[in-house]
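Final report, Chapter 2: Outcomes

The project's central promise was a pipeline that accepts a single protein chain and returns its three-dimensional structure in a standardized token representation, suitable for archiving and comparison. That pipeline is now operational. To close this chapter, we reproduce one record exactly as it appears in the project archive, with the input sequence first and the structure output second.
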Amino acid sequence: MRFMFVGDSMTIGRAGDFTWRYRMWQHLSAHFGGPHEIVGPRSEVYDTSADAPTSHVYADPGFPADARRHLAGWGEGWQHMVPLIGDAARAHRPDVLLVSLGLIDLGFYTDADQTAANVRRFVDEARAARPRIRMVLLPVIPNVRADTDAPFAAQVIRFNELLAKAVADLSTDASPLLLAARPQDYDLRHDTYDGTHPSASGEHRLAGEFAAVMHQAWGIGAPYTPTGASSGAPSGPPSEGL
């Protein structure tokens, strides 16, 4: 089975991060129980000093090159991935997409309804390339901006409602969609390093939600058990982030 990670800055990660992709790779390696592969057109992490996704420095240098593959970008959201997903799916032939998108869209590009329309376009494009593709979608986790920006917080709530509706409307027997859960009691001061991007505990919790819903709905893998604790992320109070 071939898995592709699709996401924004929370998924690509920074130079020196482990990333939740790494945590998920560890989980699949330990619990998938059969042949599997991580696929995608990119493998870099984001170099904040160069302001570009040009680094290959992961916190664990033993993270295999072929497991680093993804389709994620710093500052990229649903609207950016719609024109990319068809070609990526045709070229890399994923069976399952693990998707974490939406925060950057709502923060800078589109409102909740426009973002939800892009979700539906994304699904259409992925299925045009891979008619039997499966997808697991993570709701938007409000970041620190939602604490002080009520209209933004309302857009996050509205989008998550529309995302759940899209999953219910679009899931089919041939190409099922799953909605992962927002990690319960996700704490921005503990589970992120800046109020937005996941720390070690946040990485584990994001990976854990994808693992849990795939195990419960499709019998893939096993319940998530964190492996390792260090993230290499700086400590300190959250900043405004997105």
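Archive annotation: The CA atoms of residues 40 and 166 lie 24 Å apart.
This record, like all others produced under the grant, will remain available to the consortium after the project formally closes.
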